[in-house]
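@channel sequence for tomorrow's demo:
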Amino acid sequence: MLLALVSVNAAGQIDKRDVRRGNRDYKKENYKDAEIEYRKAIVKDSLSVAANYNLAADLYRQNNSQEAQKVLDRIKEVAPASENASDYYYNLGDIAIANQDWQTAVTAFEESLLRNPADLDAKENYIYAKKKLQQQQQQQQQQNQQNNQNQNNQDNQNDQNQDQNQQNNDQNQDDKKDQDQQNDQNQNNDQNDQDQQQGQQPKITPQAAQQMLQAIQAKEKETQEKVKKEKAKALQSRQKDRNW
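structure tokens (generated this afternoon):
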């Protein structure tokens, strides 16, 4: 992709010599020297179409396409009206291709072909840039779809996590409730056992109580009779001793 130069005839008289010297250096591929001459001309006339246009071509040759784009932007208001408008848009498209700015490239080659429909190089470059633009748009669309899918997946995952967390919280609350109920039941059982132990005193019927009383009285009577007999026996023994 070659960038054409603008002849000095399209430039004002103030930058004529500087542009000519720059063109000679450019043709000799002394691009750095040519850049110096073109910049001299721009100092004298900042809107010189020839100086800016040729400087952009020179910078492009030095693989500085981004700076070349900035230089062409300085004359975007006046260059389309010049007799070299077709070449201006052609070079603008080539620089845009170098910067992979496919939309700008397509638009630039369209403008170039409108002014010079017979330019086969412009047609080829237009087809190439348009194809690359379509690929870029398709890739962007796929990327957007992938991003949307990823976002949807993330949202679904977040929803699932929230549901799971809620289920876990509910389960924990149910477990705690069951545990509390079990603890209450255990406490009730312990209290009942304690109450039973404290209340399990043998109940005596009136009949049994009467029998027990009679048995005690009989035992006491038997004991008293035995004591009397022992006393009487002792008395008899003492009496015998005295009589003897």
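heads up for whoever presents: The chain is about 80% helix and 0% strand.
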